[in-house]
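REVIEWER CHECKLIST
Item 1: Sequence provided? yes
Item 2: Single chain? yes
Item 3: Sequence as submitted:
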Amino acid sequence: MNKLAPSILAADFFRLGEQIKEVENAGAEYLHIDVMDGSFVPSISFGLPLITSIRKNTKLIFDVHLMVTEPERFVDQFVDAGADIITVHAEACTHLNRTLMHLKERGIKTGVALNPATSPECLRYLYNYIDMILVMSVNPGFGGQEFIPETIKKLNDVRELVKMSGRDIDIEVDGGITLENVKSIVDAGANVIVSGSSVFKNDIASNVREFEKILHA
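Item 4: Structure as written out by the authors:
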């Protein structure tokens, strides 16, 4: 099933709680939370206190994307803060298998993110530990970037590898996704769509409904 995961990186933080309720009431099921450390990516975003705070006020599935160096140092804290899915970067983990196994032991759904230049082949021997593959369609670290066209071919490749694995693994895409290009992205194999600016600008509820209409057409 296709799902929309609005990214709060693009939200108005003065009205964050209100805007989270807007996307929830409009039909979104996921909330995408980008955690940046200023090391793995150039920007610093937000962390545990924010997640703990908003967890109290919504039933949305917290899709936490750790853009941090050595994420294994922090995953337990994010589990305790209320994450439902934790995605780590293949490029950031020295022992990716160990990190995924630990998350499984904590009862959390696992995701692995791939930067635009990273081949999905690096996941070939890890499929039994992965619930979601996040294909970055921009270079991570900043919101508002344009979708990298080569991502479509990469999504096709990921879809084929997932099919060969025989497992039910979600394929998520993050970066530059709009109402204009989302259909081609879903057609290429994605079923979890992260969008920030295209959800949180102007009429949030209307934007969510328009995405949902395309995703469930």
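Item 5: Key structural point noted by reviewer: The radius of gyration is 16 Å.
Item 6: Recommendation: ____
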